[in-house]
């Protein structure tokens, strides 16, 4: 095996590890600000980090103080060279109800605040459907109210579950929450095709006169 292919594999692995660690770091730092994901664009010249959040003004802070602080923390944590510029931006999530990451964070916050599981899950499903989604599903698993673990599913509307459309058109987000009885897992699935069309959709065209 050539050294070129090894270096390419190593570079891909390093980028994947950096993205996973950065996503986990931002998820903990911006949990209360509606963190909804991050996009990393790395080149040999510079690194651009684009954060998606519902409360983007809180992420920026007064006079961009907080986002500059995040930039300094990222530079120190991952030891970027001094001559390698790192830019951190924040974009506002326009359709909060159609963003699985934002809804999953909202559900996590409700459960940690002491809301009953059924009430919190149905509130999230209702908000997603009112935002214009075709289907929504919330899954909570673990020791929810008793010592015996179980899985509860709350859904509304229509969701594609299999095939390529189930992977490409359904947005999924997962979280683990440390509760008093133990760790529970939550998963939010949102089906909002927007401009995408199902491959088996049949359109009947009216005949011309």
Automatic annotation (TrEMBL):
> What domain of life is recorded for the organism?
Eukaryota
One GO MF term: structural constituent of ribosome
Sorted alphabetically, which Pfam families does this protein's record hold? KH_2, Ribosomal_S3_C
* Entry GO CC: cytosolic small ribosomal subunit; nucleus
**What Gene3D superfamilies has UniProt attached to this entry?**
3.30.300.20, Ribosomal protein S3, C-terminal domain
**Small ribosomal subunit protein uS3 C-terminal domain span:** 109-190
- This protein's name: 40S ribosomal protein S3
